[in-house]
Amino acid sequence: MTKIHETKQLLWSAAFYVALVILLVAVLFPFYWMFKTSMDSNGAIFAYPPKLVPQSYDFHAYVGLLNSTEIVLWLWNSLVVAVGSTVLALAAGISGAYGLSRFRYRAKSSLALIVLTTQMMPPLVLIIPIYTIYISLNLTDTLFGLVIGNFAFSLPVVIWMMKSIFDTIPVEIEEAARVDGASWFFIMTRITLPIALPGLVAVSVFTFINGWDEFMFARTVVTATDKWVGTVGLASFIGIYVTPWDQILAAATIFTLPPVILFLLIQKHFMAGLGAGAVKG
Amino acid sequence: MNSEIQRSGTQAAALNMEVEQRRRWFGYQKREALVPYAFLLPSFLALAVVFFYPMIHAIVISFYSNNIGSAAHFIGLQNYREVIASDWFPTVMRTSLFWTVGNVIFVCGFSLAIALMLDRKFPGRGLVRALFFLPWAVPYVAAGIVWGWMYDYEFGVLNYLINAIGLASNKVNFLTACPSAFYSVGALSIWKLVPFGTVMYLAGLQTIPSEYYEAAKIDGAGPIQAFRHVTLPGLRGVTVMLTLLIAIWSFGWSFTAIFLLTEGGPAGCTETIVVRSYLEAFKFFHVGTASAIGAIVLLLSLTFSAAYLALVYRKGSQR
Description:
The structure holds two protein chains of two kinds. Chain A is mainly α.
């Protein structure tokens, strides 16, 4: 009896590990293939059947990329846009989230719902009017315009996520300070926010990655190549006459590294931060 | 004992008096009632400028003709009528519907399966979790490039792999034939969204008390029964949120994957309603038509979300 039970258990965990490894390989293969192709020579790229392991460890494509394109400038622009929009969204969003999480007043739930409604508006529909507004304000082809646009896209998400995080922090913690006569603003910045810090980190990274990733808006409002962000620069490689796959995938690798590294650094907080929203749902 | 009560009584009286004074002097209560709005002001001001104003602007444009600039004139609902009566509308709607339903089913299914696996204890779990979440952090454009390269007909690795495993004997036109292009782009979308669903489900799994599983075990429930009667009901809230979010995103937001891999082609079989509105706006310069499509998407999303939530929560309260 126990022997059968043990064999069954063993089979179960064997099946578990096999399934886990297969899924993991499927999930990670595109990363591997991106990096592997970026090191390939032309001969290796256009060989069929393709070689599954790198034939050489050669970074010629990266050197070529730095010499022949403005990738450094695009990365810098992406950084400015992602950081700028994150800072703005946090500055506006935190107090809004706090206002929606604390206090008792009549309009509270309908205001929270209004924030959620913004997620149902397809961003493309917003891009058309924002584009016409930008033309009249001379904001096309500026990084500031991109910062504002990305700020708009991420603000509702910041409000919603920070609200779920504040909701998990008991109000009782604030009451002592309240009795001592501290102002609400003091309580939010000095008492509640420090407790919410892990979640705040997750939300910041979430917003940063959204800004780094944004493509449609940047493609629409920016045409000057010196204002291109990474996504637009990267997409410009697609469909050109002779496709230098090694350089394109080298560019993709460089562009993927910052968000991936950032994510790996904070992934523990990320679970907690996103989780707070899920649990409430 | 007695004196203690007395003392606290006088303290309370003093406090009361102080509170009363503050009320009288500063209109304390009125001021206090305004505090939440003070917190909300910056973000709602920003939302008004960058979200609601463009939103209303878009809806206004949708009632105007497609002429550029001041030549555009008010035409009422004609853009809407033309969109709905057009020969592409049924096809585009069907593609969008399949795209949305497919994304919801596969993202939720894979997310739940992976979350259940990652919830078990095994060595190196933290690292494996992080690796499973990685696709979420990849910029869409970079992912689109890599997937496009893997799907390549002549030199792509996927054609080689499915031949080597024996799944197909001929090469597959991953991106240049219908309906395979639809599935190929869908696979990228699912790959990108599953990490998000996995995080949500993992967080949901933490909230199910282990006592429930113990109770189920004592009642003689096997792992499958425990999953059906403890895990699934415990994940109900997360599933409602996740299906709604994935549906809204796939219906109204997914654009980059399709745009980069197929631009709606071949033969329009990956042309969702979002892709169509992009083409109308930035290829044909039909701004009025594009805005009308957007307003239709918003209306459908709102109606669907409200109906879905009403249905789910009414069912929930009956239980």
